[in-house]
Amino acid sequence: MGNKQTIFTAQQLDAYQDCTYFTRKEILRLFYRYRDLAPQLVPLDYTNQPDVTLPYELIGTMPELKDNPFRQRIAEVFSEDGEGNMTLDDFLDMFSVLSEMAPRDLKAYYAFKIYDFNNDDFICKSDLEKTVNKLTRNELTEDEVRMVCEKVIDEADLDNDGRLSLEDFQQMIVRAPDFLSTFHIRI
Fold it and tell me: Which residues contact 54 (CB under 8 A, 6 or more apart)?
């Protein structure tokens, strides 16, 4: 009989499996990834559900995010506090949505939230400008950015209100075959 460390109760692991696209083994692997960011803050025993939140400054350094121009926005969208500071639940949610197993509609919903910088439930011209600038790492001129944004709104705005709703965005994603292959993180 070994001294096997109990990180989660069986019920906790079942709950994590039910609300993510991960196996128990993947959940444990992600727990260790989370813990590796701040071993002094994250206990090895989560059976009593400790109140631990890692600051964005640590989350943003992960290899999967550090080179992503949307890293801060991704962390903000998935964090309960909206500031990018993450609990283990937030961390697992983020990896679950960005996993290859998550369905297209769920990915589209979160991509929409990430690109909706002003959080008004629409992607407006200023949201698109920020998105294009981040995607191109500010290498386009103002006129080029404006042209791209106008073209996107022209093609994707189904109700012609000058902005993209979630429905408009989802229709646009359906026509983007590479969306699923680019909107993911491998664990």
Answer: 34, 37, 38, 41, 42, 85, 86, 87, 91
